[in-house]
Amino acid sequence: MSKFDLESYETVDSRIHKFWEMYPDGSIVTDLFSEIRSGNRLEWICKTTVRKVAGGEIVATGWATEYEGANKFAPHNSPEVCETSSIGRALANLSFSKVGERPSREEMASARSKEEAPKPVQEDDP
Fold it and tell me: What's CA 112's distance to the chain center, in Å?
């Protein structure tokens, strides 16, 4: 497996902004649903479709799945994580990512596991 460089990763937010700059009349549409899987695990599934012009032909799609509670960084935000991943994949399929910079789920998990935990915010005593 290749090593994923988190420093060169372009965020989904950045890709979305680039898309809207290039295609202000386009559309990014998500379809999110869930299924109960074996072991009573809740799986979120999202499909994203992208059009350069609203109502025009679909130029890219992206799929993503996320199990409820599986992401240690956002255990209660599985639908949002799934949707964001799906949008990111659809935009990557439309070339809104660097060539060869499409990390696998395992590479992203490995990169996340190496991130430092957020430091608690200390409030000044008034």
Answer: 13
